[in-house]
Amino acid sequence: MATNFSDKSGEGSSPSSVVLENDDHVQLNFGDFKLCLPKMNGFALSLEQRNHLPPRNVDLFPNLAENHVKIVLYVHNRPQYLQVVLSSLANVEGIEETMLIVSHDGYFAEMDKLVQGIRFCQVKQIFSPYSPHLYSASFPGVSKGDCQKKDDPSKNNCTGNADQFGNHRSPRIVSLKHHWWWMMNTVWDGLPETRRHLGHILFIEEDHFIYPNAYQNIQLLTKLKPKLCPDCFAVNLAPSDVKSKGEGWDSLIAEKIGNVGYAFNRTVWRKIHAKAREFCWFDDYNWDITMWAMVYPSFGTPVYTLRGPRRSAAHFGKCGLHQGQDKNLACIDNAETNVELEEADKVPNIKTNWPVYVFKKQGGYNAGFKGWGGWGDHRDWDLCVSFAYMYHSK
């Protein structure tokens, strides 16, 4: 698949350059591919209508800062976690100058209520209308006649493609990857509030505790990246090792992109977007492992992120994103953060004259990893590619 776009900024095609687009159209070469978006049910349609509502709190914060970094928080259904995250965001210095976009995978009343209670900045809510959690009797939920577990379609007369381990799709699991990809395409190319945003966008999850200095540090990093790390594709608030608090050196760090508090610009999004089929056809239900093992290696160059030597965000909690909803297999904790803030975490703690230390070789998931499976059904592949196509189709 090829993506054609014009760079009118004159800054070339390096990952740190900014693409200035005068229109919203990106030409995609999908061959004979046709959009495969399922018909929305009534509830999904009502949520899609909410996606078009303007941001709230504009009366409290009428003006966004000129060079603000927008923040996207993606959530499922862990209200005890979300309360912690929102409390931490309320204490972030500079949060009032930007917009928080909350992307929901499914609809859950308590999560909705918490987001509607935000008063510390402009806030926009979006709901994936194709979330499997919204469909109880049809794809992308469970359809009648779907193969289950390790069913053999020829023997069981059922529908579906098994993954590399012989397992058929689980809607609850595939929603992880679907939501992230739908959200990315919607934020960058669908929302009027962001589809012409030329700066960086910061992405966080509902189990990320955000430090008071996070927003100011991310602004510093985005300014330093073109000069100090022109080959860096992104900036991060925390190390790629989620258990690490950072090295504490008098140095910036360039390493592989982590999944806690990462930010990139539209130029990098276009590179990711151009790899839609690589993303959508890789047999792993995790978006981040798919990026590490398949998408980033396909760029042909090392893919680094720039961060500080101390974390400005922390992963907390024991329950995974879609754990805790089954009454018989509930994953329960008290959303204790175990995060001890020091004075250095409350003020910008990145120095503009620091050198950059590069971690050239790191462990974890890399090119050649075959994936954890859970993503073998061709209907999921087509829906995933459709998300990349939906805002660019005539």
From TrEMBL:
Report the cofactors: Mn(2+)
List the residue ranges forming a coiled coil, or say none: none
Compartments reported by the entry: Golgi apparatus membrane
Q: In which pathway does it act?
A: Protein modification; protein glycosylation
Top-level EC class as recorded in UniProt: transferase
Give the GO biological process terms: oligosaccharide biosynthetic process; protein N-linked glycosylation
Q: Which GO terms describe its molecular function?
A: alpha-1,6-mannosylglycoprotein 2-beta-N-acetylglucosaminyltransferase activity; metal ion binding
Q: Which cysteines are joined by disulfide bonds?
A: 147-158, 229-232, 280-384
Q: Identify the residues that bind Mn(2+).
A: 207, 315
Q: What is its EC number?
A: 2.4.1.143
Q: Where does substrate bind?
A: 105
| UniProt keyword list | Disulfide bond, Glycoprotein, Glycosyltransferase, Golgi apparatus, Manganese, Membrane, Metal-binding, Signal-anchor, Transferase, Transmembrane, Transmembrane helix
Tell me which Pfam families the record gives: MGAT2
Offer a single GO CC term for the protein.
Golgi membrane
What is this enzyme's catalytic activity, as reactions?
an N(4)-{beta-D-GlcNAc-(1->2)-alpha-D-Man-(1->3)-[alpha-D-Man-(1->6)]-beta-D-Man-(1->4)-beta-D-GlcNAc-(1->4)-beta-D-GlcNAc}-L-asparaginyl-[protein] + UDP-N-acetyl-alpha-D-glucosamine = N(4)-{beta-D-GlcNAc-(1->2)-alpha-D-Man-(1->3)-[beta-D-GlcNAc-(1->2)-alpha-D-Man-(1->6)]-beta-D-Man-(1->4)-beta-D-GlcNAc-(1->4)-beta-D-GlcNAc}-L-asparaginyl-[protein] + UDP + H(+)
Indicate how the chain sits in the lipid bilayer: Single-pass type II membrane protein
Classification via Gene3D superfamilies: Spore Coat Polysaccharide Biosynthesis Protein SpsA, Chain A
Q: Which family does it belong to?
A: Belongs to the glycosyltransferase 16 (GT16) protein family.
In Swiss-Prot or TrEMBL terms, this protein is called Alpha-1,6-mannosyl-glycoprotein 2-beta-N-acetylglucosaminyltransferase
